[in-house]
Amino acid sequence: MAGIGEAMRTQYALLEDVLDLEQSAACQQGDTCSFKTDDSVITLTLGKEPSLKGSLSLACKAVDALVLQYYEEPDNRKAAFGHDLSLQDWHTLSTIKDYYGDVLFTSSTLSVNLAHPLLKEILAELKNEQRRFSFLCGHDSNLGSVLGALGWDEYTLPSSIEKTPIGAKLVIEKWLGSDEHEYVAMNMVYQSTDQMRLMPLLSLQNPPVVYGMQLKGLDANDDGLYRLTDFEQRLTERIEANDATPSSIRSTTYSDTRSSAAVYNLRGQQVDKHTQNAGIYIKNGRKTMR
Predict the structure, then answer these.
(1) For 45-53, which contacts have Cβ atoms below 8 Å and span 24 or more sequence positions?
(2) What φ, ψ does residue 141 adopt, rounded to 5°?
(3) What is the Cα–Cα distance from 73 to 84, expressed in whole angstroms?
(4) Considering the entire predicted model, what is its pTM?
(5) In this structure, which of 24, 145, 152, 284 has its CB flanked by the most CB atoms within 10 Å?
């Protein structure tokens, strides 16, 4: 059965070409000559973030460095180690990093656990009538887990090669409508790729990009706003979903090697392994992630 990295086959090929991987010291030493699609190992340890080893992890580190080089190096050929890459090529490479983050942080079950402290803090801040502004600082993994827990619609940010650009902010605003109901706007605010590379000062004349995030299962009004009560209910449901995770679930390791054993969800119900949604399941008496 194809591994986690199968979805990155095209991206891996492009990355191998840009890195001249077959001519690299790592390959000459018999280490890494290509990125494999079936060697990923995910470890879930109670109280810690998920960790991943294998080609997807290695490719993510390489792309992370390449994207930083692209932002810092004005010469496009030098940024790509002498290769002529289009903007679409850079976006293709960046999807490796985005996919890595999705695998580890945005599945429905993992995200509600990983984002649990932040979700509680966000809900508390929204309910604090004395608060005018709150700033919570984190990493791209925090953005991914919070969005995953809230149930975001799949998105592609305009004018960016990344899903969570450097310095991106998830801005949640409270609005009072003319109907006297309170509403919420949720936007991703970030610098465009050109702004990142050219580094002009941001201003009202040169503002960052603002992209409205959409949530599955919640109805937005004509202005793209959600009722505050609906949004708070979504937060509450996701917080309670973490509290409902069985305490018997402990640490385990998931790899791309799979057997034909029956698969169960966290409620003990057997599920069809061919149609199961992303999340955590029990197989061979152990917790696995899809």
Answers:
(1) 45/251, 46/250, 46/251, 49/104, 49/105, 49/114, 49/141, 50/104, 50/105, 50/110, 50/114, 50/289, 51/104, 52/100, 52/103, 52/104
(2) -65, -35
(3) 14
(4) 0.81
(5) 145
Q: Tens digits of per-residue pLDDT, 113-155? A: 999 999 999 999 999 999 999 999 999 999 999 999 999 999 9
* C-alpha torsion 267→270→271→273, nearest 10: 120
Q: Please count the helices (runs of H) and the strands (runs of E) in the chain.
A: 10, 11
Quick check: 124 and 116 in contact, CB under 8 A? no
- With DSSP H G I counted as helix, E B as strand and the rest as coil, what are the percentages for the chain, rounded to 5? 40, 15, 45
What sign does the CA torsion over 146, 152, 155, 157 have?
Answer: negative
88's tokens: 């679409």
- Sign of the torsion formed by the C-alpha atoms of 44, 48, 53 and 57: positive
